[in-house]
Design a protein that fits this description.
By secondary structure, this protein is mainly beta. It has a single domain, classed as YmcC-like fold (Beta Barrel), CATH 2.40.360. The protein contains two helices and ten strands. Strands 4-3-2-1-10-9-8-7-6-5 form a ten-stranded antiparallel β-sheet. The protein is globular, with a radius of gyration of 20 Å. The N and C termini lie far apart (about 55 Å).
Length: about 200
């Protein structure tokens, strides 16, 4: 009976330690994870609390090769993939690699818009879960990352900000973003993902 108890305890410990995802930790993608022709398409919509649509459309990103260098098209720009996968040196990053449920950090971002307005986001981040999520493009295992704090700008804008990002490691990108800033709600959802066979 004593040996059966020990064997049972050992099996329980092995099951508790086993995870098909390397202990539930996801490392930052590397250059070799991307391939020419890989493509993501999101639809987005921003609506005020009064129902006014302030933005609506589609956003497409695709991996291309320019003179043998991989790049990701973003709007009219092409960003080298090695810049995208370069470890972020910020102490307040958007994603704090490696990703793991329960992880917490501070995210801060300073920006300047095309009209010269400057702004800042200061948010507390936490990874709430890792589970299968459904979006228009299909089902993906994804981390739910919640950000809460404030967004301000040089024109006097000062709003509470809550963002929920669903990040899917298998496609190296987010599959859904829901952002609420006081009287404005913005949703971006992946509607298609493809890569060469």
């Amino acid at each position: 009976m004593k040996s059966q108890t020990i064997i049972f305890f050992a099996l329980v410990m092995l099951c508790a330690c086993y995870s098909p995802r390397k202990s539930g930790i996801t490392q930052q993608p590397i250059l070799a994870d991307y391939q020419v022709g890989e493509k993501w398409v999101w639809k987005y919509k921003g609506v005020s609390s009064e129902g006014e649509i302030r933005s609506e459309g589609e956003d497409t990103r695709e991996i291309v090769s320019i003179d043998g260098v991989l790049g990701m098209t973003i709007g009219n720009d092409t960003i080298p993939v090695f810049d995208i996968v370069k470890p972020e040196e910020s102490t307040t990053p958007r994603y704090h690699w490696p990703l793991e449920v329960g992880k917490q950090w501070k995210y801060e971002s300073n920006w300047t818009s095309q009209d010269g307005t400057t702004g800042k986001q200061s948010l507390e981040a936490e990874i709430l879960s890792y589970r299968e999520e459904r979006v228009e493009a299909g089902n993906f295992m994804a981390y739910t990352i919640k950000y809460t704090g404030r967004t301000t700008n040089s024109r006097g804008y000062n709003a509470n900000d809550e963002e929920v990002w669903l990040y899917a490691p298998a496609i190296k990108n987010f599959i859904k973003l829901t952002q609420t800033q006081d009287n404005f709600k913005y949703i971006e959802e992946l509607i298609d993902y493809s890569k060469p066979k």
